[in-house]
Amino acid sequence: MAQALARRRARRRRKRCGACGRSRPATGFYRSAAAADGLDDWCKECRRAYLRRWIARHRAAHRAWTRAYRERNRDELRAYQREYQRRRRALMRAGRWRPKAA
Ligand SMILES: [Zn+2]
């Protein structure tokens, strides 16, 4: 209970990024179950840049991880795709499908 309250309070306040040092609102951080306040120590921008570099340097490991993830969550991913395509077809029939610009 106290933990849930702490997390809710954390979502409202600002936090300083441990990498770039800039202060940002809580929405500028990814959630992290491992962190005491429930937010990543680095802002989204820094985390994304770090992951991009990590993936570029560890292509084989990243490929293995994504493959294992897909296998582990095959049923869930399949159900998500089925639902997404069902909604897409319904929107297309209604003429309201707006694909995101690439
Ligand atoms: Zn940052």
If strands are numbered along the chain, what order do they take across the biggest sheet? 1-2
Bin the helical content.
55-70%
From the coordinates shown, what is the CATH architecture of the largest domain? Answer: 2-Layer Sandwich
Q: Please give the domain count.
A: 2
Succession of helices and strands: HEEEEHHH
Number of helices: 4
Principal-axis shape equals extended
Q: What is the fold named in CATH at topology level of the largest domain?
A: Wheat Germ Agglutinin (Isolectin 2), domain 1
Strand content is: 5-15%
Mean pLDDT: 91
Q: How many runs of DSSP E, i.e. beta strands?
A: 4
Largest sheet: 2 strands, antiparallel
Written overview of the protein:
The chain has 102 residues and is an alpha+beta fold. It has two domains: 2-53, Wheat Germ Agglutinin (Isolectin 2), domain 1, CATH 3.30.60.130; 59-93. 58% of the residues lie in helices and 14% in strands. It contains four helices and four strands, in the order αββββααα. The strands form two sheets. A two-stranded antiparallel ribbon has the order 1-2. Strands 3-4 form a two-stranded antiparallel ribbon. A hairpin with a 6-residue loop joins β1 and β2. The protein starts with a helix and ends in a 9-residue tail after the last helix. The mean pLDDT is 91. Zinc ion binds at residues 17, 19-20, 22, 42-43, 45-46.
